[in-house]
Amino acid sequence: MKEKQTFDWSVLLPIPCYYPYRVTTRTVSLPVPCHYPYRVLFVCPLPIPCPVCVSTTHTVSCLCVHYPYRVLFVCPLPIPCPVCVSTTHTVSSLCVHYPYRVLFVCPLPIPCPVCVSTTHTVSCLCVHYPYRVLFVCPLPIPCPVCVSSAHTVSCLCAQCPYRVLFVCPVPIPCPVCVPSAHTVSCLCAQCPYRVLFVCPVPIPCPVCVPSAHTVSCLCVQCPYRVLFVCPLPIPCPVCVSSAARSSADSNLDDICKLLRSTGYSSQSGAKRVPISSTFISMVIGRLRSDDIYNQVSAYPLPEHRSTALANQAAMLYVCLYFIPSILQTQQAKMREIVDKYFPDNWVISVYMGITVNLVEAWEPYKAAKIALNYTLDSANIREQASRYSVSMEGLRPQIQQLLKEGFLREEIVLDNVPKLLNCLRDCNVSIRWLMLHTADSAYDPNNKRLRQIKDQVINDSKYNPKILFQVLLDTAQFEFTLKEMFKKMLSEKQLKWESYRTEGSERMTELAEVFSGVKPLTRVEKNENLQAWFREISKQIESLNYEDSTAAGRKTVQLIQALVEVQEFHQLESNLQVCQFLADTRKFLHQMIRTINIKEEVLITMQIVGDLSYAWQIIDSFTSIMQESIRVNPSMVTKLRATFLKLASALDLPLLRINQANSPDLLSVSQFYSGELVTYVRKVLQIIPESMFTSLAKIIKLQIHAIMEVPTRLDKDKLKDYAQLGARYEVAKLTHAISIFTEGILMMKTTLVGIIKVDPKQLLEDGIRKELVRRVAYALHKGLIFNPKAKTSELMPKLKEMAATMDGFYRSFEYIQDYVSIYGLKIWQEEVSRIINYNVEQECNSFLRTKIQDWQSVYQSTHIPIPKFPAVDESATFIGRLCREILRITDPKATCYMDQLNTWYDLKTHQEVTNNRLFSEIQDTLGTFGLNGLDRLLCFMMVKELQNFLSVFQKTILRDKAMVDVFKAMLSAVNPVKGIVANAKTIVCLTQKIWGPVENESIMKMQILRQQIANELNYSCKFDSKHLAAALENLNKSLLADIEAHYQDPSLPYPKEDNNLLYEITASLEAAGIHNPLNKIYITTKRLPYFPIVNFLFIIAQLPKLQYSKNQGMTCRKATDPVDWSPLVLGLLTLLKQFHSRYTEQFLALIGQFIRSIMEQCTSQKIPDMPSDVVGALMFLEDYVRYTKLPRKFHPLDKGLEFRTVL
């Protein structure tokens, strides 16, 4: 037997939980595993009464365990403290068995159970006992692992003397992967140790089985307990709702996988549901003896009996597990069951394609195994396989003959309904038997006997999957055509029958007039008897009633017989006109009989016979054959349409009982199965876009490398060179192939698959989008991988190469759009922007606490998914690699930025590293969306750097007593700032001693990059869309003018809070580059003491490292101690911009005071040259004013405000 490869969940489920809640749709953390898949902490929106005050107004968190919920209440009512009986403490009440458990912070002294001291601050947790106290005890307590008492511990009083949380340095082996290399926390309790491991070993999640989730493994008595953060939606057990994901999402398949992975057999699974044995016996009795589904009438032939009873056999197979004694010991009953239901088949479909091989399933049961032996006899297998092989050989040409154009006419169909239905039965029965008994999923490759049976079936039946698939296609097409004809005939049945009756009656009336002798041209002698008789026949025909079809049919037959007899007895054959009238009337009467016999029962029989639910999963094994057939002959899609519709009939099986019960779940279940089928249709037809893009790749190659672009003016001599007839012929041939593929899918017509309408044009467009996304995403992923160790940067060459690739995609896509009838440019822009924005979003996830999952992303799609590729470095996507490569080559430690030239130079070699052309290349490669996404990613990086800088500032500088003393001394020295400091030189020397190397370099260079990106976006916007650029600029100016006017006069209008105009226009302005990155506020900040002083000292400390050059401006003195001037100015500007404008004013006032003080000393000492520090400070102010566009006349503290009072 097959060895089950399942995970032993028993190790994960040590604690029994008998409450029947199973949850399916809220994102949760699973802290305690139990016999049910998980326990979940819910924040439930339903009102739950507080057990203290019975109020339902408190926000609660509901924890499902044994009971429906445990609720954490923050109750405003006073609850007496169990220690001091006071009700003044703020408490949190936790509902469990008892009315409440209360966490008190009690001011009374409670003796520590370790040292009996009452001086420790404690938290008292009320439970059964008077108190449980969390002590932070200073006494040494021996660690239960290494017996050392040197560890800092927290002692938690409970039943045992102490429970202590140790951080133990002793290596403890991890129970998952055995190594002891993990950092652990040892929690002492009754057992020797409980250890919290963060284990790198992948452990399968009990909800969705994959092991991709980050888990924390908590060792207790059992080998491990695992805390999973599972992305699957799980509903709350109180309100059974989910706020985390849309109702369209379903994890039914994941729950099924979980249940299958438990390793329980069908018998043990049946034991879980206690059902009366008497009831089960009665059910099995009815299933054994009766045709409860009434399907035998649709299969009248005896060799089709097992197919007719297939659904009943599947139900009987399941029910037998509820009374396993029948399977084990009752040979007579099992022999009866096998002889009736399984004489010629041993692979059955239980439900929607779930197949069971009885050889394997009944192997443990003696009676069932013995009963099945005759069916599995080699001679019987050979007989059945040979019979279906012969049947397939005969049916294939027959069905192809029926499908010939013009063969299936209405007269032939009506005259041969039984023969056509027999052909249809034979085809479907043969297809069913061969598909089930040759399916790979039905046979375990590790089971020798099963392998032998499968090989014998394949050999004896001469099984060929391509022939079987072709017969399936032809049968589906024949069935579809026949159904459509019958539906049309049924809809027109009464109208046609009445028209035939009218025609017949009129013929008889005219014939009566012929024998009246009134019409002189007829040359028929007057015969009053015949005249009267024909008038009577006309009245009889007119009196036929459509509603009473049986009587009308019998009477019609009698009328036909009478017309035959009158022709013979009265010798009317000599008159051809009269014979023609009689023949026409008989024909109309025959048509009336055919029409009245069109019954809906034929459609019902066809529906039963054509059931393909057994192939719901097996059909996937024919996908490659389908796609290959489409590739060879695109018109094959029309037959595939019939096959998909045949497969859609399988939806009746799961919906039948739901519909009969009038369940509200009918729509959701229909939506699910229809969606699954449409997904499969998309999967099969995706070969058309794939084939199109294969041809498109050849067109791209020819257009880029072979075909030269024809210039505007061309010499006659060079006309032949530019003609390139061979290459252009190849392009035309490939284009024709693409148009043929398009024509193939558009032949499919709009089809209703289940309850979802499938539009072939939309299907084609979605397929093209999907393939475009896959190929472009792959090209970007592979093309933008950089080697950081390369001597010369690979950035520009790879960008040029990538730009050529993207341009090839764009040009070829533009070229074929008319041939496939799609909006190529629209699709290109939408999908490329979606790819880039999605990758930017995923890259920015590393900077977010709450990650944006794929199912939350507005850019990700189910039908047109953007592929995710494994990371090749610290970046998650290509946009991150591109950004970090730019930051690497523009590193201020290795390069110098020249603002006048917008160029970076290498500090050592003085060679150009890159310039603003870099951003033009990015624009050519990734377009506006790429530059905008890069700018957005830089914003996230800047926020992270600013937060890190402020954190370091608070933790290091402000906690350094020596530095704070220096700042205080500085404050007293510089006040008032309008004055002059006598010892300014001393301040400069002092700052050089206390200040280290340059910090926040990342912020500095990112601002330069953002400026360059904004310039490139603005330039391209004005060049490519000058009207849009002008409209955005004018709208921006008018909005700013209105806002300024509102602040001057509050009565004037201002955008309301719910108005999204400002947010939307900001996004458009940033995309067009109409913004200044230097004016952005990236983070919210609090007041920081000494911040202007620190920045002032920082800039003064850098000035001695710089020198002024008339040609180049400020440059570093030594290459070994690099300081890049422009990034330095921009970095300080950005830092100050995050704080109140007073800080900027104070900072500039300090620099002004510094310049005045140094110049005062130089004047007094009669030094003719201006000191380099003063030159540097003046250049800093000059550049600061230029970047910020501040007025040159600036009085920061003109109100006489003292500097100390501001701080």
UniProtKB/TrEMBL annotation:
InterPro entries: WASH_strumpellin. GO terms for biological process: actin filament polymerization; endosome fission; endosome organization; regulation of actin nucleation. Pfam families: Strumpellin. Coiled coil: none annotated. It comes from the Eukaryota. Transmembrane segments: none annotated. GO terms for cellular component: endosome; WASH complex. Belongs to the strumpellin family. This is WASH complex subunit 5.
